[in-house]
What we know:
The complex is a heterodimer.
Chain A: H1 13-29, E1 34-38, H2 40-47, H3 52-57, E2 60-65, E3 78-83, H4 87-102, E4 108-113, H5 119-127, E5 134-139, E6 145-148, E7 151-153, H6 159-164, H7 170-186, E8 191-195, H8 197-213, E9 226-231, H9 237-240, H10 246-253, E10 256-257, E11 260-263, E12 285-288, H11 294-299, H12 304-327, H13 331-365, H14 368-382, H15 391-398, H16 403-416, H17 422-436, H18 441-449, H19 463-469, H20 495-504, H21 512-517, E13 522-526, E14 543-550, H22 555-566, E15 572-578, H23 584-590
Parallel strand pairs in A: 1-2, 1-3, 3-4, 4-5, 7-15, 8-9, 9-14, 14-15
Antiparallel strand pairs in A: 6-7, 8-13, 10-11, 11-12
Helix pairs in contact in A: 4-5, 7-8, 10-13, 12-13, 14-16, 16-17, 16-23, 20-22
Chain B: E1 8-11, E2 14-23, E3 35-39, E4 46-50, E5 62-66, E6 72-77, E7 83-88, E8 94-98, E9 102-106, E10 112-117, H1 120-125, E11 127-135, E12 138-145, E13 150-153, E14 161-163, E15 176-182, E16 185-192, E17 195-199, E18 204-207, E19 219-224, E20 230-235, E21 239-244, E22 252-255, E23 264-268, E24 277-281, E25 285-290, E26 295-299, E27 304-309, E28 312-317, E29 320-326, H2 329-335, H3 342-354, H4 359-369, H5 373-386, H6 390-404, H7 413-429, H8 439-445, H9 447-456, H10 460-469, H11 478-489, H12 497-508, H13 516-525, H14 529-536, H15 542-551, H16 555-565, H17 568-581, H18 584-592, H19 595-608, H20 610-620, H21 623-636, H22 640-656, H23 660-683, H24 692-701, H25 705-714, H26 719-732, H27 736-745, H28 753-761, H29 765-772, H30 777-786, H31 790-800, H32 803-812, H33 818-833
Antiparallel strand pairs in B: 1-2, 2-29, 3-4, 4-5, 5-6, 7-8, 8-9, 9-10, 11-12, 12-13, 13-14, 15-16, 16-17, 17-18, 19-20, 20-21, 21-22, 23-24, 24-25, 25-26, 27-28, 28-29
Helix pairs in contact in B: 2-3, 2-5, 3-4, 3-5, 3-6, 5-6, 5-7, 6-7, 9-10, 10-11, 11-12, 12-14, 13-14, 15-16, 16-17, 19-20, 20-21, 21-22, 22-23, 24-25, 24-26, 26-27, 26-28, 28-29, 28-30, 30-31, 31-32, 31-33
Membrane topology (chain B): Peripheral membrane protein
Organism (chain B): Zoarces viviparus (Viviparous eelpout)
Family (chain B): Belongs to the VPS16 family.
Amino acid sequence: MAAHLSYGRVNLNILREAARKDLREFLDKCAGSKAIVWDEYLTGPFGLIAQYSLLKEHEVEKMFTLKSGGLPAADVKNIIFFVRPRLELMDIIAENVFSEDKMHSPRDFHILFVPRRSMLCEQRLKEQGVLASFINIDEYILDLIPYDGDLLSMEYESAFRECYLENDQTSLYHTAKGLMTLQALYGTIPQIYGKGDCARHVANMMLRMKREFAGSQNQILPVFDTLLLLDRNVDLLTPLATQLTYEGLIDEIYGITNGYVKLPPEKFAQKKQGEASKDLPTESKKMQLNSAEELYAEIRDKNFNAVGSALSKKAKIISAAFEERHNAKTVGEIKQFVSQLPHMQAARSSLANHTSIAELVKDITTSEAFFDNLTVEQEFMTGVETDKVNTYIEDCIAQKDPLIKILRLVCMQSVCNNGLKQKVFDYYKREILQTYGYEHILTLNNLEKASLLKPQTGSRNNYPTIRKTLKLWMEDANEQNPNDISYVYSGYAPLSVRLTQVLARPGWRSIEEVLKMLPGPHFEERQQLPAGLHKKRQQGENRTTLVFFLGGVSYAEIAALRFLSQMEDSGMEYIIATTKLLNGTTWIKSLMDRPESQIP
Amino acid sequence: MSFITANWNPLGEAFYRKSELYEMSWNLKDGLRDCLVSAAPYGGPIALLREPHRRSPSSRPQLEIYSASGVSIASFPWKSGPVVHLGWTVNDELLCVQEDGSVLIYDLFGSFKRHFSMGQEVVQSQVLEAKVFHSPYGTGVAIVTGSSRFILATNIDDLKLRRLPEVPGLQGKPSCWVVLNQDRQTKVLLSNGPELYILDNTSCTVVCPPGLGPQAGSIVHMSVSFSYKYLALFTDCGHLWTGPSHLQDKMSEVDTKKSTPPKEMVWCRRPKSQQPSVVLMWERLLMVVGVCQDTIQFPIEDQCVLVGELDGVRIISSTNQELLQEVPLVCQDIFKIASMAPGALLLEAHREYEKSSQKADEYLREIKEQSMLGEAVRQCVDAAGHEYDTNTQKSLMRAASFGKCFLTDFSPDPFVSTCRELRVLNAVREISVGLPLTHTQFKQLTLQVLIDRLVYRQFYPLAIEMCRYLKIPDYQGVSRVLKHWASCKVQQKDLSDEAIARAVCVKVGDSPGVSYSHIAAKAYECGRTELAIKLLDFEARSGEQVPLLLKMKRSQLALSKAVESGDTDLVYTVVTYLKNEMNRGDFFMTLRNQPVALSLYRQFCKLQETETLKDLYNQDDDHQELANYYVTASYREKRLENRLSLLQSAVDEYNKAKNEFSAKATEEEMRLLRFQRKLDDEKGAGLLELSLQATMEALLALGLHKQAEQLYKDFRVPDKRYWWLKLKSLAEKEEWEELEKFSKSKKSPIGYLAFVEVCMKSNNKYEAKKYVSKVTPEQRVKAHLAVSDLEGAVDAAIERKNESEMGAVLSRCSASDRLLIDRLNRARPSTAKK
């Protein structure tokens, strides 16, 4: 079921198994039949840990979504609330519990806080007078969720907003805790590098927690050699750019949530022979996307322009494999062919699916709008006329294109110009307010607070220096057979990944100047390993780095890191961890504030 | 070496030996006479109460506590009531059972811990006799009262008094009684005249030991073994009956030929005992009576106390202390005269080897021929464990080590661990420490408990030394010792807070697993708050610091510690606590100094108490946020007037924040809202809440061109956007004339390609074509293509001599456009040439 988690350099299935074990233990604590009442936000992340079958094995018979009012009827002994520690949810739970008493059916209540129990919430339940109704109040420590063989995500959507807008570092605390859990399972990580205020904060907490746990540390040979903590605000540019890898584009266009994507159904209609395909499915097609699917693992990180040829190559291989049956003469050969059949059929249906998806994506990428948008993005990234009002943006506003698209572009221009000239800045803002409505003034203020959108202050624009030093723009990006990470954006090499690459070789010392231009401190810490746990490295054995993106990471950045792992001479393998997988749209969305009008 | 068996006495098949443990360090003037004495098993401490019955207030009895080697630990005059019995708990705490039924608990150092009572009725009837006993549940106390009732407390740490049923015909106290632990039940066995009873929770049953005839007499003394498995009964005719304690069997019956009951009677066994025995003590005689009916008799000169142990009996007199035990089988095998056991041969071989005699080889050969060398080594190692004398230990271990050399595949573990354990045992047996543990007892007690006992006796350096030597993980070893040490240290009243904090910090340092908050809590318990705070400073886990700090009312400090931890829930907890604790002004001030806490509290307020949020911003003069707050609030208003007034507040605040743009934008919004309402009122246009752009769009759609125009001017809408808007709007309504007029009103700021494209979108090629000629040369090809005028496109492209444009046109040409293609192709090289 989760075999793909164990294929990678680091067996992340250990983490998943540990999480499943905890879950089973909790469920068994509540003896008898159960119903789970879900904080809806959690169902996605939980799906990555355990399917319904596991819950069913432990007598979970019903599942509901947490909402105010009474609980639905269910003939079960236990009602378990799976919730995040949020006050507003406590109030709903209290309401649920109260309405239950009236119906005098004796059901036992339990709460499972994810990822951590909270005194504040328990206090709230106490004030509401329901705390005593709960038999078990427990926490389910789910910080880092294994997302794929080399990818961990906390699925903590609001992390960036909380850290940079609200100065709420809860997510960082969970991050540090998650990293401690990780170290408990995979050994102490001897080297920690970081860039950014949040990174510093997380590293400090980790070192402090290590002191707290001192002595109880396990004797596990470290799996990770290095941890690199990167603040998202060190590289605000990358997520704003349109991702051009296959997976990145699927995410940009359709949005991948918790490893699933919903696609328009038309292309996936099963056309059976002799049957007219008149009734098209109306429900969108839901597909899981991860490296368990061989073909997907192969093409997900390719530049979309290289996907077509990869698919047709695959198609040839598969049909060749099916042709083999004509060569099978002896019973033994036929038997062997038949035994391979299920695998081949799976490959064929996978190929069909991805051909359809690629067609869908292609419809978009070949459109003029997409091309124009990309051209402007690339102009900004290469520093062309970033200090003027851009006519394309102007036109887009006049055409009332989606606001988020506008915001992405304006922010990008601001970032690439180290802030906009006051006149340009005000002009854009005015255009946005007049066109999309005054209420967006709050969103604009937020973007300003997060430095995504800002007026130029006295200092000179240092983006060109950063771009040149880190080689962020590569003229001759090879999309088919890439030789540099810049292929993921057809020319632009993501800054965050460049920093990672430089850290591995030749080291950050070579780019001190640039590091100083980027926000927040950069640092290095060492964690003492217990004697006898120092790795004896085999010749040619790769080192492993865990790159943690605080505030989110895009699929294209992940693709770039995977590319680095696969590069023969890099000598480094990367495992990626993040608070949340994001793209420019979801990211900007998370920073928006939109008051609902009450005027009738 | 030959003397080893000198103190061996045969008893049946086995041997008993009495070896000296200590010459007692104490100096007891009057010996042990007239004393209440209690010595704890496992080499535990000895308590002594002199003349317990002396009741004159002028000379109170003295309570003295000694280590097993007689080193004085505590001594103080007994000021409470008359004591009936002394006993030790499993935790080495002293229980003093008083006549009135109250039980006082003292620690090893004579400090009073607490007391409890055996019941109200006892105050009247008084305690006649008491016994302290140990069971799997802990330490218990049993008493018999003046009204002949037995009262039990099975576990003094979880006190539940049990009054046992009445014993028929019992007057005063029985002639003798013991507490039994059977089938997880605590019972009392007692003898009253000729009858023997078992008392349990509900009943009193007469029992009869099998094989003990009435001629043997009535029972006057009884003793139960260390494990509660065996019972010894002594009758007034001098018969000693032994058997299992469930009284369903008999082991033996021996006539001691003594008519007086012994002063003390104790079982002497060891695990896997070959020849268990009962030790009886009279005034001048110690008699060991084996189950085999053999006896050994030792004369004694002094008053003694017998202490039953797991594997023997300790005999404590005023001058010395001896251990009487059955010689372990393995020691018998090795040391018995003329023994041919492999261990004995190996010992001999090694002895010869040290003398450089070739006999060593002969002995070795002999062992090896029987393939018994492994066994021989094992025997020597085992025997070494049982020996008390260090020289004997050494010679046995050397022999084992010697034998080991000739073995290829022999696990060194038992050898190594025995070496280590012997070192530890020898160290704790030192007279200054005074824990005369045997190896068997040590194994039973476990290392953990031994360390605890050392810690409890405040032998901290030795305990730490031991932990390090045995490589116990810090968590269970050194750290635990340090924790106890520190908890004890903070109670030292003669040292300043500063000195103690420093001393603790230096010693404990960053030792893993030592909880400074635990130590601080101890200090706080002793009323040393300042010290507690100093100590808490060293605590790494803020989660632990915070609750104690709150308890000590150091809320500000608690807040900064919570912030330091990064645990936001902890911060919230303290903040909520502070909120209830302080007045609002102070509360805000406190938060102001803690930005992290402040922002968390703001978040809280955003969701829960928006009004407070305003106050917070106000206090901080955060005009920008305050303005944002008003904006948000304005949307919550149901009436336009209220919204406008809130927006006005926002404008004021934006101005104060020097955010001109936002102030102006807000003013514009207000203006727009007023305009919208006016039009809504006049024309029912439904404009309210639309954006400026949407408003103009709506106005144009309604044909209210003038009003749209007015907005365009009033709000200084850029021409481009307005032109787009108007263009689209007119095309949508298909007002083509109007559109043409508009196009001619002035030079289009958006060019004319837009006109072409918009017209085409409305499928009006005719109108679209009108604007093609107006399109700038750069876009003309595109314009021609848009209206599918290939020829025009070709002309334009050739005129422009633009390769890529020509390509674009070419790609739109189909095969039927032969002519055009040719023209293009002809034109292309000419551009290439240039």
